[in-house]
Amino acid sequence: MACEYWKRRKLNPDCDRDDIRATTRRINGGLNGLEDRTNYIRKAKETLARIEGIQLTGAVSDPRPVLRRGSTGAAVGDLQTMLSKLKFALAIDQDFGAATELAVMRFQGDKKLTADGIVGKETWDAIEKAAGSTSLSSRPREFLVLDALR
Questions:
Q1: What are phi and psi of 72, to 5 degrees?
Q2: What is the C-alpha to C-alpha distance for residues 149 and 110, in angstroms, rounded to an integer?
Q3: How far apart are CA 26 and CA 150, in angstroms?
Q4: Cα 135 to chain center, whole Å?
């Protein structure tokens, strides 16, 4: 349905020119939602540029996102689920707030990692090993890209 709408409204030329204002006007009849749409497009372009860069260099990247306070989405929910398995009292709300940060810092300290509350490769590896969980690295890349856009 959305594809047919797009095709009927002939939106590709505006998009090909990267004209977000014209596209928004043709979809909404005005500029409602322009700020949100601009932010989502920026995030999508940044994510796609990272993926392109990895593919061009041939580098093998860790597909797990780096998480910190303020991060949201399914990857945060996965992290919270693993931390809950490790007996940290957390709400699994997909929002990396103060309680998640504190749990990560305590886990990092216990494992002799830098206790900065940031979940990068080393912390992911240690949490997954301790929780006996399947790695996020096994998730299809498209889901990781969608997580990054949230």
A1: -140, 165
A2: 32
A3: 25
A4: 15
